[in-house]
Amino acid sequence: MSVIEGRTLAADVDRGCDVCIVGSGAGGSVLAAGLCARGLDVVMVEEGPYRTAKDFDLEERHAYTEMYQDRGLRTSEDGAVIVLQGRTVGGGTTVNWTTCFRTPDETLAHWREHHGLDLTPETLAPHFEAVEARLGIAAWPEQLANANNQVLLRGARKLGYSVAPLRRNVRGCVNSGYCGVGCAWDAKQSMIVTYLPDALAHGLTLYSDMRADRIEMNHDRAGMVHCSALDGRERTGVQLRIRPRVVVVAGGAINTPAFLMRSELELHAKIGHRTFLHPTVAVTGRYREAIEGWSGAPQSIGSHHFFQRGDEVGYFLECPPLQPVLASSALSAFGADQLVYMQNLKHVSGLIGLMVDGWHEDVPGGVVRLAGDGRPRVDYAFSPRVVRAMKDAMVTMTRIHLAAGASTVISLHGKAVQVSSESDLNRLEAASYGPHEHVIFTAHQMGGAAMGGDPMRHPVDLQHRLRETQNIFVVDGSVFPTALGVNPSETIYALAHRAVDFVAAAV
């Protein structure tokens, strides 16, 4: 197995290869396994550290510091949106909450009609089937849903909303609930236990702790990828220079656009635009019985009852894990108020509503820009439709909590709104909504290098090739032309599986 940690390199390295893949997450790893199985010489670079089950101590303070972008403190430019994004070998798959969906038929239809992206359920089916088999993707039994997810199931059913168990990529899951800090049992079928070992067994060379700085172009071809070795988050001064026949950018939305911009590949200024976040809001309920939302599979029940709402932005509902650091970071309360909240965490349930952004012309999403030091910055403009959807989602989740038996429902506004009965909903209706009014976060970053049929709107073509280049491909969630409307990991897996043929043909 060839995993080289950047901090161990004492001298510069120059290396040729068939394919250089930047990023080791859902897109890069599936692609690497397919290319290596065909006998191609593949070099992968990953900015984050190489961590496996033996390193996962279930401590949030260590996981967020070591395995998340900006130590778990990444936000939008104005601080309005908390951005949860992996920074480790395996990318987001190492720290995500295991929820897997095939791309909704409605999403594919929207992409075909509005973006010329000719993907259908039938053409994607073989790719979904392949990754589902490799990753053990299956529905989590309803009876194993933890008390937090049972709140969503019970309340939604009582109100007549469609709700169902979710599918998860796990084998032998111990139901710990600590998926977000790395699975210490290797039950989560993340890239570090599936596709990356497959690729390494077939000759992949993986450099961890290695920041990809830029691509050096030779006319319309990538000639060299310049990288800097890291010790933690600091450069060591050692350089890795890769001379590939093909470059694949798979750093994830936000980081992929930033890397392309550092390489001066902005393509009609479209790179970095139309970045979507599934802007997410939460409502908590306090229950007399114990919930213990930190224990048990974090997301096992979901509702897409409000996925499509015509002229209004749709949203879908799930449950987050409630480990202490994650739960407390979502609060606007401080001091004594925060102490009281955390003392009662055992009895708190949390529901989240995720907005399906990008489906309406006046919901353009955000923009990724470069800071002076070359790092990415995300500016997200909240359109009135998204703000209305957040309000509607919070009212809906409050009703679900009440139907499920909550004694009090508490919003995450700067000044929390408390609701104890339907008659109190007017308080929530009268509250203010939007950035800085309440907690907003994202665990799903999409877009910024859209794939589609119009060269002036979509910088990536239908075979994942970056337009106006001969040998650069983009294979990650940044190619989505809109938000997906479901958790994105399985769509990225399937698109990467499909892209193996395109990339291999370019070598």
Describe this structure in words.
With 507 residues, this protein is α/β, with parallel strands linked by helices. The protein has one domain: 3-Layer(bba) Sandwich (FAD/NAD(P)-binding domain). It contains 13 helices and 24 strands. The protein has helices at residues 26-37, 60-67, 92-95, 105-115, 121-135, 147-159, 195-201, 255-262, 324-329, 335-343, 384-404, 425-430, 489-506, and strands spanning 2-5, 13-22, 42-45, 82-83, 99-100, 137-139, 164-165, 167-169, 205-208, 210-218, 221-231, 234-249, 275-276, 280-286, 301-302, 315-318, 348-355, 366-370, 376-380, 408-411, 418-419, 441-442, 446-447, 472-474. Strands 1, 2, 3, 9, 10, 11, 12 and 24 form an eight-stranded mixed β-sheet that branches. Strands 16-17-14-20-21 form a five-stranded antiparallel β-sheet. The protein has a three-stranded antiparallel β-sheet with strand order 5-8-6. A hairpin with a 2-residue loop joins strand 11 (221-231) and strand 12 (234-249). Helix 1 (26-37) packs parallel to helix 7 and helix 6 (147-159) crosses helix 11. It is globular and about 65 Å long. The two termini are 24 Å apart.
